[in-house]
Amino acid sequence: MASPVWGDLPHLNALDKIPRPFLIGVAGGTASGKSTVCSKIMEQLGQTSLLENNRMVTIISQDSFYRDLTLEEHKRATKGEYNFDHPDAFDTELMLKTLLDVKAGKRVELPAYDYVAHKRSPTSTAIIHCSDVVLFEGILVFYFPEIRDLFNMRLFVDTDPDIRLSRRVLRDIEERGRELDQILSQYVQLVKPAFEEFCLPTKKYADVIIPRGADNVVAIDLIVQHIQELLRPNRTSRRSRNNSDSIVERPH
Ligand SMILES: Nc1ncnc2c1ncn2[C@@H]1O[C@H](COP(=O)(O)OP(=O)(O)O)[C@@H](O)[C@H]1O
Ligand SMILES: Nc1ccn([C@@H]2O[C@H](COP(=O)(O)O)[C@@H](O)[C@H]2O)c(=O)n1
């Protein structure tokens, strides 16, 4: 019989059998603050005395799973004309296999994504060991049903589109080697329509929607408290208590 630790617990219903790693999906539009929210959650979970030193929190980015581009696609990418916001841009099979390995407690090695070269970095990798909590963040982490179903908790970072665009412009110029006119044309022609078609409709799958992203310290504190409570050793069944779903904001 399978161990209850790795049991088949696709979501928050089996509250008295919390699987490790506890897999959290973090979706949201480009530059909504997904990575920043994950870093804050990781920071706050790492600091708590409830988690032992040898337990870990890991962040994986969906961007590590961008497909390799053909020569022609790469040419378009350098002109800001390749659609990186479409589900087809991702290697879904590899993404699913990796997450299943992570869930099974296997060690995985992931390349960092190089946004300047539009491909996975051949030199920089992240080793993902078996962790207590794994945060998987990206624009389309709730889009693919097989992947969506793996999460034990789903968060959607909901930041105003104008703020996202202004942050993306600064970030893409400073960190991703892009020119302003290309950032804007890519955004208008590809990023924004794909957000509306593929990312925004996945908000309904979230357990918690985080308005204003990392600025929302209250939401982040509540999420961290909730995770700590779920992962507390020897916790009593939440079904026997009354405060079980107090922080879970379920969208309509
Ligand atoms: N609350 C915030 N206030 C100011 N800048 C922020 C905030 N959250 C994120 N940023 C900045 O916006 C950019 C995108 O944030 P990031 O967390 O990487 O978003 P995402 O992972 O959703 O693309 C980064 O340059 C980041 O430093
Ligand atoms: N070579 C690439 C790969 C991706 N993008 C853009 O990145 C966005 C996703 O990353 P976030 O950190 O913003 O969530 C996505 O909107 C792609 O357009 C890119 O420009 N170039």
Explained architecture:
- Belongs to the uridine kinase family.
- Keywords: ATP-binding, Kinase, Nucleotide-binding, Transferase.
- It is an enzyme of class 2 (transferase).
- GO terms for molecular function: ATP binding; uridine kinase activity.
- The protein is built from 7 helices and 7 strands, in the order βαβααβββαβααβα.
- The radius of gyration is 18 Å and the shape is globular.
- With 252 residues, it is α/β, with parallel strands linked by helices.
- Residues 1-16 and 236-252 have low confidence and may be disordered.
- The strands form 2 sheets. It has a 5-stranded parallel beta sheet with strand order 2-5-1-6-7, covered by helices on one side.
- It has a single domain, classed as P-loop containing nucleotide triphosphate hydrolases (Rossmann fold).
- The site of adenosine-5'-diphosphate (ADP) has 13 residues, from helix 1 and helix 5.
- The ligand Nc1ccn([C@@H]2O[C@H](COP(=O)(O)O)[C@@H](O)[C@H]2O)c(=O)n1 binds at residues 30-31, 34, 63, 66, 77, 84-85, 115, 118, 139, 191.
